[in-house]
């Protein structure tokens, strides 16, 4: 797989949109800290790899998971767990 870095990652100056969204990013950050502190975690005896992000589709998660499985399947058993597409619950 080959990924190309978006050009806006290299911009050094603040745009109107970045200034406007900055307070929201702080709120998002604080919520993520609270969620991390209050979430109950569980330890597993097997290695787990999570492939995901906040985007719903078109970001290459399936392709990445398939490639990872091909590599790991040479020496390990591989299993996929998904929430499913179009889930209602």
Protein described:
It is a single chain. The two termini are 33 Å apart. The protein contains two helices and no strands. It is 39% helix and 0% strand. The chain is mainly alpha-helical. The radius of gyration is 18 Å and the shape is extended. The chain has a domain at 15-72. The model has no long low-confidence stretch (mean pLDDT 85).
Q: What is the CA-atom radius of gyration, in angstroms?
A: 18 Å
The helix content, as a percent range, equals 25-40%
Q: Give the percentage of residues in beta strands.
A: under 5%
Q: Structural class per helix/strand content?
A: mainly alpha
Number of helices: 2
| Uncertain stretches of 5 or more adjacent residues | none
Q: Compute the number of strand runs.
A: 0
| Backbone shape | extended
By oligomeric state, this entry counts as single chain
**SSE series:** HH
| Separation, N- and C-terminal Cα atoms | 33 Å
Average pLDDT, rounded to a whole number, is 85
What profile does the largest beta sheet have?
none
Lay out the secondary structure:
Blueprint: H1 16-38, H2 61-72
Short account of what is shown:
Helices cover 39% and strands 0% of the residues.
Question: What distinguishing features does this structure have?
Answer:
89 residues
């Amino acid at each position: 797989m080959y990924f190309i870095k978006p050009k806006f990652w290299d911009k050094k100056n603040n745009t109107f949109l970045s200034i406007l969204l900055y307070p929201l990013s702080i709120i998002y950050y604080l919520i993520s800290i609270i969620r991390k502190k209050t979430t109950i975690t569980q330890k597993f005896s097997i290695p787990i790899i999570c492939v995901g992000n906040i985007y719903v589709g078109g970001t290459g998660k399936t392709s990445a998971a398939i490639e990872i499985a091909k590599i790991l399947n040479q020496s390990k058993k591989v299993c996929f767990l998904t929430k499913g597409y179009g889930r209602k619950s």
